[in-house]
Amino acid sequence: MTALDLFKALSDETRLRSLLLIQAEQELCVCELMQALEESQPKVSRHLAQLRKFGLLTDRRQGQWVFYRLNPSLPKWANAVIDETCSANRALIQDELTRLNKMGDRPDRVKSCC
User: Fold this and answer.
1) What are phi and psi for residue 59, nearest 5 degrees?
2) Model confidence band, residue 39 (pLDDT cutoffs 50, 70, 90)
3) What is the CATH number of domain 3-98?
4) pLDDT tier for residue 38 given thresholds of 50, 70 and 90
5) CA neighbours closer than 13 Å in the CB half-sphere of residue 53
6) Nearest-CA neighbor of 82 among 24, 4, 12?
7) Of 5, 33, 45, 111, whose CB count within 10 A is highest?
8) According to the UniProt entry, where is the signal peptide (predicted)?
9) How far apart (Å, rounded) are the C-alpha atoms in residues 18 and 16?
């Protein structure tokens, strides 16, 4: 991963908000991101695929659902950029976090959307 790759990946608002939400929550599924971002499944999935292609995210399957988290193999400098961006810009994803919280905690949250 290069700095250009990281900043190119985060230059889109949907990708940036998705990544920050995943950083804040540790792991999210597509339906949780759809609810939080108020976006369609195809749009969310397309942006998640791009983040995965850039190497920022990994996914795991659980039945029919796919859960995304930050790639544990990210370079330290990339993790530091993401951590600092998330910490310093919590207001950027506050509305999305509120929508996630209204869904309840897992497993109730997963039952309500998946």
Assistant:
1) -130, 160
2) very high
3) 1.10.10.10
4) very high
5) 10
6) 24
7) 33
8) none
9) 5
pTM summary value: 0.90
d(CA 63, CA 47): 21
Closest by CA to 82, choosing from 70, 93, 91, 99, is: 70
**For residue 22, which of 39, 11, 8, 37 has the smallest C-alpha distance?**
37
Six token digits for residue 41: 């499944």
Radius of gyration of the chain (CA): 13
Q: Under the phi-then-psi rule, with left for phi > 0, alpha for psi from -120 to 50, and beta for the rest, what region is 55? A: left
CA pair distance 113, 108, nearest whole angstrom: 9
Contact assessment for residue 24 and residue 86, using Cβ atoms and an 8 Å cutoff: yes
Task: Kindly list the domain boundaries of the chain, sorted by start residue.
Answer: 3-98
The identity of residue 59, as a single letter, is D
Rounded to 5°, angle at Cα 42 from 38 and 58: 95
